[in-house]
Amino acid sequence: MEAKESILYNIKHLSQLVFEVTDACNLNCKYCGLNSLYKNNSERKGKKLPFYKAKLIIDYLFSLRERPRNTDYPLNLGFYGGEPLLNMKLIKQIVSYLENIKFTKATYGMTTNGMLLNKHLDYLVQNKFQLLISLDGDKFHHSYRVDHMEKNSFERVVKNIKLIKKEFPEYFKEFVQFNTVLHDRNNVEEVYSFM
Ligand code: SF4
């Protein structure tokens, strides 16, 4: 297969599309790829992806598929940041756009720092978002994950995790996972034990 055909084939059969919906974040983790630890880090500008740009790629994807409205090609939409919950307006626009074109096999996922989950929980549960919540372990393990005032985010994140577990236990079991960064304040055994 020629390179061009191969690229088109893979775009046409794409099973996962991830949007970086914003580079803004309500945390300022010490090891963040957008933080000063990295020499060539790209400066955080608080930008938000506009809907028209997301729509361009979705429309292009469907234009390559012969039967865009059927369910032959499941598509998972991922939302990433920065902190994606800071651009919920866009996420809701994308979900609603896909629903309107009756692409019934779309599923959704998000990597989140968990700080704003309490504000958007009903919507996320209703739309069966697969959540990947960043949690580095217990309070000390999590202490590189600070806000802009240098305050550890642990208590606020765990409060939201407990809220999901209490209000939506079935959803919690099926749709919530955790993402841990390993560093010099945690280790695999202790994190497992804590989880
Ligand atoms: S939550 Fe993620 S994007 Fe935000 S500062 Fe931490 S590592 Fe960076």
Oligomer: single chain
Rough outline: globular
- CATH superfamily caption: Aldolase class I
Helix content: 25-40%
Going across the biggest sheet, name each strand in turn: 1-2-3-4-5
Bound molecules: iron/sulfur cluster
The structural domain count equals 1
The span between the termini is 47 Å
- Calculate the mean pLDDT score and round it: 91
User: Radius of gyration, rounded?
Assistant: 18 Å
H/E series: HEHEHEHEHHEH
Uncertain runs are none
Per CATH, the architecture is Alpha-Beta Barrel
Count of individual helical segments: 7
CATH-assigned fold name? TIM Barrel
Structural class: alpha/beta
* The level-1 CATH class: Alpha Beta
Describe the structure.
- With about 200 residues, this protein is of the alpha/beta class.
- It has one domain: Alpha-Beta Barrel (TIM Barrel).
- Helix content is about 40%, strand content about 15%.
- The chain contains 7 helices and 5 strands; from the N terminus they run H-E-H-E-H-E-H-E-H-H-E-H.
- It has helices spanning about 5-10, 50-65, 90-100, 115-125, 155-165, 170-175, 190-195; strands at about 15-20, 75-80, 105-110, 130-135, 175-180.
- It has a 5-stranded parallel beta sheet with strand order 1-2-3-4-5.
- Helix 2 (about 50-65) links the parallel strand 1 and strand 2.
- Helix 5 packs across helix 6.
- The protein starts with a helix and ends with a helix.
- Iron/sulfur cluster (SF4) binds near residues 25, 27, 34 and 83.
Any chance you could write out the topology, listing elements then pairs?
Elements: H1 3-12, E1 16-20, H2 51-63, E2 75-80, H3 88-100, E3 106-112, H4 117-126, E4 130-134, H5 154-167, H6 169-175, E5 176-179, H7 188-194
Parallel strand pairs: 1-2, 2-3, 3-4, 4-5
Helix pairs in contact: 5-6
The protein binds iron/sulfur cluster (SF4).
Iron/sulfur cluster binds next to loops.
